[in-house]
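**User:** My hope is that you can spare some time for a protein that puzzles me. As I understand it, each token names a local backbone shape. I would be glad if you read both lines and explained how they fit together. The protein I mean follows directly.
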Amino acid sequence: MAEGSIMLPAATGSVTGGRLLFPVMPAPGETLPGYLLRNVEPNFLSNIRPLLSVAGVDVALAGNCIDKLSRVAGRLYDSFGVPEDAWNGLWGVESERGGRRRLGGVWLTPDQVESGRRRVPPSHVPGAPDKAIWMVRDLGFCPASWEMLIDRCPRPTCNLLTWMSATSLHVCGHCRTPVSEQKRLTVPRAFRPALSWLVGLFGDDAEQERSMKALPPMFGAETPTDAYELVLGIARPLRVARDLSIHGRVNLELPDVARACRYLLDHPRSHWDLHQQTDGVISAFRARMETQLRLSQRPAVRSDLIRVLQYGWPGKSKVDPVWETEWVSVTEAAAILRLERRKVRSLIDAGLLHEDSKLGGEYRLHSSLRRVSVDRLRGELMAQMSLREFQALTGLSRSAVEQLLGLGLLAETTSAAAKLVYQGLHIERESAEALLEGLAVASEVDPCEGSVPIWEVMRGVGGRPKPWARLLRAALDGELPGGLRGVPGSKITDLTLHPVTARHLVMGGVDAGHPFEFQAGDLGQWERLDMASSEVEEYLNCTAQDVCWLRQRKYLQSLSAKGEVAQYARHEVEAVGRRMITTREIAARIGKPPAKLWPELQAFSVGGSLGQGFYERALIEPWMAPA
């Protein structure tokens, strides 16, 4: 509610303070989707969907749910009220970096993570947390119990174990069959020592160090990520050597991974054991190793694969150093550019990357690209900053960023390549860094008693757009009374204003003149006729629940079809803002917490409350005027 949620007493062992009635405490090593699911039953919900709705989040958890949830983790956090360090310990809260997500010492690619379906051991205890390592696609077992994980309902006629429909980790979301009905299978004892070494790469610092030291000295893997990639690079050739009928893609199974670990740990003895096999087996192994070499992007892994190829046959490797340095395949280009292969293809089709189809030979693919061209394009793409990245640095909403673009404080990307391969708004990194550096200099002002954070000031601006761009431009130009204040590294929203300046920004009604007021033409080409739910919350100084309340009472109508992300007409939102005022805005303007404000409002506004913490603005403005 706009005046805050009224919470019931929490059950023993639960955590209070958020919007949920009974949020549970996150457990070490637990995943974000697993934690959300663990909150369903204690809060008497049917599945994850209503839990997400409480936080105003509308995402479908099919596919890569970890990435989808990490994008809205900040909004989800506000719904639970758990300690920040416990929340940040959930796997999936931290954003990915360069397309990878870290687990222990290993940075995993999306292809190496199985987050679209639940994987649990049959003996999973109801109410117990899941483990992040259960999501590592090529492992598929629980290191604590050595049980094989299942991802399908025990009933043969049912479906995969999904996230969205489930009520808890240990039951099927479709037919409610407990996973305990599945026969319990364990990892063969012969594989456990090798897999235990591999699991150490995903452990704490001491476990990582032990596993890295166990590698034979001939291997140059520098990090746990290198070691894990090397295991996968060896596992596929070993699988092909065991089954000569495989000619295409190799889908790894746990025994393949275990044998690859054993091969590395026992090298060079394992190498000579392999070469006791037939010429056909050796040839198949080397051919697939050469394929893995072409596909590998990590220098240390490539070097180790070459060492394996050359071991025992000095000079027999066919690696062409000229090709290695001057040409890259489409797959390699995709890794360098941090794009999907299909997007690299779209760059080629658009003439932004040029391929040479005349190359041939064992290491030269028919769709080879000049490395210098790929590197040049990578620099061009890195010169762009996504809206999401800029928001993470600044704390600003999309509407505030659009104001900055409209006034020329930021510049949209002009890169044709970036516009082709990236979705959504991207800005020139140079303009973003210049803005942040300018504000850092402008905020080097001595602290002032009673300084007010900008985010708190903007909460007191209602019934009109919040003047982010004009306020920041005034600070950059040295025209902001009292200046900005902030410690180095502060987000823009955490910078503070002199209390007198803050007071003048929020005082008066909708039509009163205000310093640095947003002007109709400020947005320019960035003016939009619709608003997302989060923008409505910001404009009206309310919560996601309040927006739902406004919809239910027909004050607002969604422009989107059922199942799509809700969008609202800007003119409708502005009309609601002119008519209504929330407890949040009132509290920010007169400087009183909502708990102390309610009795006064109830005594004054008899008949003026519209419900859900909304009041008639025309009634409340005169009451606030003397404040």
Summary: The longest helix spans residues 224-242.
